[in-house]
Write a structure and sequence with these properties.
The chain is mainly β. The chain has no helices and 11 strands.
Amino acid sequence: QVQPVESGGGLVQAGGSLRLSCASSGRTFSFYAVGWFRQAPGKERVFVGGISWDSRRTSFEDSVKGRFTINRDDGENTMYLQMTRLKPEESVVYHCAMGGQLTQEAEKYDYWGQGTPVTVSS
C-alpha cells in the first residue's frame, strides 16, 4: 500500500534551512514521481518542487529555484526537500504526493500525505 508520510517540518528563523522528508512503505516507491506542494489555510495546494521516478528530472516553482533542492533515496523509500533561505511567507503546510509522472498539477497525483507544518519566524 502506498502512503506518503512527511516529516521534518518545524520552526526556523527567516533565512534558515529545513529538510523535509517524504517516506512511503512498499516496494513500489521507486516507480513513482514525487512532488511537494504547499497549502495555506483556505487556499489550494501549490506546487513547490518534484522529482521524476528515475531522478532524471526535477522541477521547481519559480520562487524557490536556487533555494530548494530535491533528491530521493529509493533504497530508503524516501525523498527529501532541502529548503534554504526560508521566508516568513513560506510558513504553511507542506504536502508530499506520489504519482505516475512529474507534474505541477496537484490533481494528477494519486497519493497524498497529511502534511508537515513549516513556520518561518521573522
